[in-house]
Amino acid sequence: MKIYENESIESKLFRLKEIIKILEELSRSPKDKFVKEFQLNNLAMFNLLIGITIILDVGQHLLGKISGKTAEEYKEIVRMLGQEGIVPAKFAEANIDMAKFRNLMVHDYDKIDEAMVHDYLQKAPDVFREFAEYFVEFMDKYADDEGV
Length: 148
What we know:
The protein is mainly α. The chain is built from 8 helices and no strands. It has helices spanning 6-27, 31-36, 38-67, 74-83, 89-94, 97-107, 114-121, 124-146.
């Protein structure tokens, strides 16, 4: 039994890798320039949203495959990833606000200002990269354990 659909997860993680590069470049923009330039802010928000969604999609898929559990809310996906040992529990708890930030961008976008996006952008590439590394590490270990 495969824990994941290889092509689907790989393509999502490849897309996440591309997003990380974009976000790293955007994160180098000085805050005052970033706040004034609408296009920079929108590009950052779009890529943050897609990156977070990829992490949540892959996380939900892995949770369903290994435990049969599904989360009711996005923040629960992150918490459950820690509880199930897919990512370290401490890392999961430290990044639970990622799902809240995604919901803010989608549902309460009028409450987000450009400075907030710039602040979040400073840590997002590293957090996204860590999630991807933990996912790959977990899938490799699971495949080894299952003989897949």
